[in-house]
Design brief:
By secondary structure, the protein is an alpha/beta fold. The chain is built from 8 helices and 14 strands. Strand 9 and strand 10 form a beta hairpin.
Length: about 375
Amino acid sequence: MGGPVPASRTRGRWRLRILGGTATLALATFAVAPAASARSNAPTCDRTNTFTLADVRAAVGADTAHARGITGKGIDVAVIDTGVDQVPGLAGRVVNGPDLSFDAGQPNLAGRDLFGHGTHMAGLIAADDSAMGDGVAPGARIVNVKAGAGDGSVDVSQVIAAIDWAVENRNAGGLNIRVIALAYGTDAVVDYRTDPLAHAVENAWRKGVVVVAAAGNDGRNVSGLGNPALDPFIIAVAGAGKSGDTASGYAPTRWSTKGNGVRNPDLIAPGECVISLGSAGSYLVTAYPAATRQVGGQTFVRGTGSSQSTAVVAGVAALLLQQRPDLTPDQVKLLLTKGANLDGIAFRNDAPGPKIVGSGLVSVPGT
């Protein structure tokens, strides 16, 4: 699968080394079946707490939007990840951008999702007529900008280059990139105001592209979001899970990274025990058979993390931008945070300090 997974995988999070430094870049996902047991705050997935694609749509009000003809049509979402495969649930709606990963020099690997993470994210955003239903924005198109290699490894410069490509080509060749889904994060080593990754996402934001980033999976005993989620311009997303203790049926999760009181997550979204598209033969599918299902000839994988939550919010943003294409990123953020559902959501927090719930559970405006 392109090389060994870094040893730090044992923490239950895919930590990816930044070349030439001590910082780490991480796919903000964990708990792909048995890997969840590696962390004390990771969930045990069963039928009571698993999100199907239908559950995700219902949680955020996407079904109501779809009934009104709002499906994300005409909106392109750039998924900067480990690649996105043209699996049946995404057939004909994946546009390949550049492969900026370590796989790029091998023609047979270029653009392909050998790890399986990017395809999983794309399914949550835009699965259409899959064997297990639609994603949040099934009319949206996915722009595959591959930064992570088949073993998940990536350099921060590759992520920055991917963001810059999406911005420079947002309207090129028939594209309409209005959203970037970024499930990568790194420990911040400098202030966001001087950090090059933060600069890249701010540049995208100013050019009219909504950037949605994962808050991280370090749990409530760790305060401070990952970079670039810590940048206050963009939308930082933490995880929500099913809960029988709240009126809404949802609550922030124990594994989500909380803020530091100055910069906190903006929203929570379904991210715990979530089923989405899998890429047959990818690392995640082959390494975690207990989390994999074959339905109607298609592959599906269950996973947990703020990556999944990020994909859900990216899909909601696509719905909003189809309905109101003249919105700026600031306006999108305002509408999503002001319209978030706080009804009955408990501010559960086992450690002192800021909460992780943000403005609440994301909801499609007007639903």
